[in-house]
Write a structure and sequence with these properties.
Blueprint: E1 4-5, E2 8-9, H1 15-26, E3 34-42, E4 45-52, E5 55-57, E6 76-78, E7 81-86, E8 91-95, E9 100-103, E10 110-111, E11 120-126, E12 129-134, E13 143-147, E14 154-157, E15 164-170, E16 173-178, E17 182-186, E18 193-196, E19 203-209, E20 212-217, E21 222-225, E22 232-234, E23 242-247, E24 251-255, E25 258-262, E26 269-272, E27 278-283
Parallel strand pairs: 7-27
Antiparallel strand pairs: 1-2, 3-4, 4-27, 5-6, 7-8, 8-9, 9-10, 11-12, 12-13, 13-14, 15-16, 16-17, 17-18, 19-20, 20-21, 21-22, 23-24, 24-25, 25-26
Length: 286
């Protein structure tokens, strides 16, 4: 795996980040499944964004049961992870089937009990805490949970019957996006303010970079905001369903056989071809 990326030495990263950086390379066994692994500093937190298909996160006990079951070591032959947040003492990941996993070292993973049975979709780290969001049409909707250690979680009542699909942290605030153009903002992860952009469409993912938030969704939609409150629509040139967006020096939005890139979220360059799973990793410290 690369020992230096974007001016940051691998040895300078927290242990979980070092392990994850190596694991992304070693467990795929090929650069073909890894589009990029880069790590860089931003203020007092680390941010890493990777695009990869994570394979063979091995363990002993097999697939973990539903929420409420005793945590067990998580295993899967080929495991797709959509979101990872790495704090100074633990890492939290959202895995397939909407489960939350926790690891102290980035190697051994366990399911965690959050106090709510739901389908989680995204997690981030900021201001000393993890924030995970989700919901489904079967399980409780409008789910927001927070944790300072990734093990003990508090459920935050959003008061909304909606599916929260993405979360990002930047410029001292959290931003959540979801169905029907729903957007929530919070400065502390506890008190949330809901609003809707002028576009009533499903927003699937949000990222922060270059001083702005960018969110994507169905029909190639992209909206951007400097403060998370006022949003403007941008033209991507894409009509496909965009399932994810990440930031690594530039925004990268991806969907079925489509990837689009932009520096500030306003002018996009579209590429066609096979697109691997987009995985956003947030590495932070207090």
């Amino acid at each position: 795996p690369p020992e230096k990326e974007s001016g940051t030495q691998l040895k300078d990263l927290p242990a979980p980040a070092r392990n994850l950086n190596r694991a992304l390379f070693e467990r795929t066994g090929s650069d073909k499944n890894m589009k990029a692994v880069s790590v860089f500093f931003r203020l007092l937190r680390f941010v890493a964004v990777a695009t990869a298909c994570i394979a063979a996160m091995r363990a002993e006990d097999g697939w973990a049961g539903p929420a409420g079951q005793k945590p067990t070591t998580r295993a899967c032959g080929r495991c797709q992870i959509s979101s990872i947040a790495i704090g100074p003492r633990a890492s939290v990941a959202v895995a397939e089937r909407g489960s939350l996993l926790r690891s102290k070292d980035g190697s051994e993973w366990q399911t965690v009990e959050t106090g709510v049975s739901s389908f989680f979709r995204s997690v981030t780290y900021g201001q000393g805490e993890f924030v995970a969001v989700g919901g489904s049409y079967i399980h409780p909707s409008g789910v927001i949970t927070t944790s300072t250690d990734g093990k003990h979680w508090k459920v935050r009542r959003s008061g909304l019957r909606a599916i929260f699909r993405g979360i990002a942290y930047g410029d001292g605030k959290f931003v959540v996006v979801g169905d029907d153009g729903l957007i929530l903002t919070s400065k502390d992860g506890e008190d949330w303010k809901a609003s809707r952009c002028s576009i009533r469409a499903t927003l699937t993912s949000v990222a922060y970079g270059n001083g702005c938030f960018a969110a994507v969704g169905e029909d190639g939609i992209c909206i951007t905001s400097r403060d998370g409150l006022e949003w403007a629509r941008q033209i991507t040139g894409v009509r496909a369903y965009l399932s994810s967006i990440s930031f690594d020096g530039e925004f990268t939005a991806s969907g079925s056989n489509i990837v689009a890139r932009s520096t500030h979220g306003s002018l996009w360059i579209v590429e066609a071809g096979s697109v691997p799973l987009a995985l956003q990793v947030t590495v932070g410290e207090k």
